[in-house]
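Re: beginner question about structure tokens

> Can someone show what the tokenized structure looks like for a real chain? I only ever see the sequence side.

Sure, here's an example I had lying around. Input first:
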Amino acid sequence: MITLYDHIQQLRAELACCYLASPTERAAIKADLEQALARRAELDRQYTAGGGD
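And the corresponding structure tokens:
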């Protein structure tokens, strides 16, 4: 199973190779990356608010 961190790194790598993606694919990758980063931020907030349990 891919971790959220790995997923974010994969999306960033795909964006770095932007010449491989059409504008539509690039927009979809960016949207997916933004969602993954928002999810990570939410998990970080929950972790710190819960005392790390």
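Each token stands for a local structural state, so reading them left to right follows the chain. The first helix runs from residue 4 to 16.
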